[in-house]
């Protein structure tokens, strides 16, 4: 009987070792920033004020050649999962978020949402997608996700094809199980985020996202490669009037990309639409340049 038990155990181990790599799942989704900030309020002054908190000095996740994914989390207690999608605007990569019913097939979820394209509000803000429907992950092994591509995936000019691949790579590599993407089985040169780092705009805003409902003070996060690492933020009401402003310093400045985090308070008599504007101040003439505008909903404060 003892010999029979040992033999059965060995058979189970052999079967497990020979099983194919698990497909259709990328593991837990990355943590999505809360759209509503509930920290202690701060007053918005007439001019820019330093953002609260020191900037992170760890190596940024979006530096060229880096494939470190975002932090991960389990599905929320209410059965939803938040994924980051990388759309395009003016030929550059732009992130946004989706909170959807939780599923183990996170690769399918991410690719389906990427192909479905931006919401009406995101489209109005200039976001688009060049990723067609039908792509799917067929294998994940050694942190490489292998795709089966739909017909026409590589159609179009070289710039469009590269942007399409960049959207897929930056979306899939947010998950801890994926560091690179192989486009079709047998692809000898899978690529990670660093291969498309030049498709990031000077300022990337990871939070808030288009359409978020915000309360004062607002926390703004992202990465930037700007002069002297200085990132400025202001909040505008529905009429375009400035109701809050701040600035912060990214973890790295000119010639390299670094994380930034800024907190800015505002005052608003009645809730309504507004805009979070993140920008660089030109060293040449003081103009706002590399401006990123995020349409949001502002609560009264």
TrEMBL record:
InterPro entries: GerMN, Gmad2_Ig-like_dom. Residues 107-193 form the GerMN domain. Residues 1-21 form the signal peptide. Residues 28-79 are annotated as: Disordered. Keywords: Signal. SMART domains: Germane (SM00909). It holds the Pfam family Germane. PROSITE patterns: PROKAR_LIPOPROTEIN. This is GerMN domain-containing protein. The keyword Signal applies.
């Amino acid at each position: 009987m003892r010999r029979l038990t040992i033999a059965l155990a060995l058979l189970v181990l052999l079967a497990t070792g020979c099983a194919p790599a698990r497909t259709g799942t990328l593991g837990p989704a990355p943590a999505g920033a809360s759209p509503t900030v509930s920290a202690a309020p701060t007053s918005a002054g007439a001019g820019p004020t330093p953002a609260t908190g020191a900037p992170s000095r760890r190596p940024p996740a979006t530096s060229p050649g880096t494939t470190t994914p975002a932090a991960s989390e389990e599905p929320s207690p209410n059965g939803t999962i938040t994924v980051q999608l990388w759309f395009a605007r003016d030929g550059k990569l732009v992130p946004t978020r989706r909170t959807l019913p939780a599923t183990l097939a996170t690769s399918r979820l991410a690719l389906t949402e990427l192909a479905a394209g931006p919401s009406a509000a995101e489209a109005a803000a200039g976001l688009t997608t060049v990723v067609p429907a039908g792509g799917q992950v067929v294998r994940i092994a050694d942190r490489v996700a292998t795709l089966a591509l739909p017909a026409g995936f590589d159609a179009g000019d070289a710039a469009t094809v590269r942007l399409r691949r960049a959207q897929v790579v930056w979306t899939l590599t947010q998950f801890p199980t994926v560091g690179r993407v192989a486009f079709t089985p047998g692809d000898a040169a899978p690529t990670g985020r660093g291969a498309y780092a030049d498709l990031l705009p000077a300022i990337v805003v990871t939070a808030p996202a288009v359409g978020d409902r915000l309360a004062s003070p607002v926390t703004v996060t992202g990465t930037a490669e700007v002069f002297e690492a200085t990132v400025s933020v202001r909040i505008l009401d529905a009429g375009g009037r400035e109701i809050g402003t701040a600035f912060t310093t990214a973890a790295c400045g000119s010639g390299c990309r670094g994380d930034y985090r800024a907190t800015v308070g505002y005052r608003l008599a009645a809730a309504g639409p507004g805009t979070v504007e993140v920008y660089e101040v030109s060293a040449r003439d003081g103009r706002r340049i590399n401006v990123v505008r995020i349409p949001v909903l502002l609560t009264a404060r």
